[in-house]
Amino acid sequence: MNTSLLTQIQLPVVARRWIGLAAILGAVFAMAELPLYFVVPACDPPICGVETGSLMPDWLILTRTLFNFLALALFLVFMTGVRFLIARADARSEWFGAVAGTAGVAWTIVDMVAKGLEGSSAIMSLFRFDGHHWCGGQAACVSS
């Protein structure tokens, strides 16, 4: 007998469509992010190089980070919906939905931390610390 509280709650068709849309859009953002790892435009030494510590343009890194955060946010919506749908289908399979949902959230958190570090390194490459002051952009550090 199906006695789970989640099996007694009706999920509207609109909510199921949003879950599917989140999965499709998340996959689109993830696929749009993938080529940005392999296609790197030419980067001149004033912007990129050993001196600046950056081997690719910052806008490219930040675009990848933005696409990844959007894909992961949509992935969270999808995993939450799938967990609910699995629990709704059969109370005996509710444990599988919980494990899958928790694994999806854990993976999303780890990936968001990694992408946050990658994006913050791109932002911090715009600034330089001379020991006393932070210098931004192309401006030279002036000690006072």
Describe the structure.
This protein is mainly alpha-helical and 144 residues long. The protein is 61% helix and 4% strand. It contains four helices and two strands, in the order ααααββ. A hairpin with a 4-residue loop joins β1 and β2. The protein is elongated. 10% of the residues are buried. The mean pLDDT is 79.
Which short descriptors sum up this protein?
144 residues, mainly alpha, two-stranded antiparallel sheet, elongated
β-strand number: 2
> What composes the largest sheet?
2 strands, antiparallel
Number of helices: 4
Average pLDDT metric: 79
Secondary-structure element pattern, one letter each: HHHHEE
Give me the secondary-structure category: mainly alpha
Give me the Rg, rounded. Answer: 22 Å
With strands numbered from the N-terminus, the spatial order across the biggest sheet is 1-2
**What's the end-to-end separation, in Å?**
78 Å
> Fraction of residues in helices?
55-70%
Overall 3D form:
elongated
Strand share of the residues? under 5%
Poorly predicted regions are none
Summarize the structure.
The protein contains 4 helices and 2 strands, in the order ααααββ. It has 144 residues and is mainly α. Strands 1-2 form a two-stranded antiparallel sheet.
Task: Give a topology summary.
Layout lengths: L4 H4 L4 H21 L24 H32 L4 H31 L2 E3 L4 E3 L8
Antiparallel strand pairs: 1-2
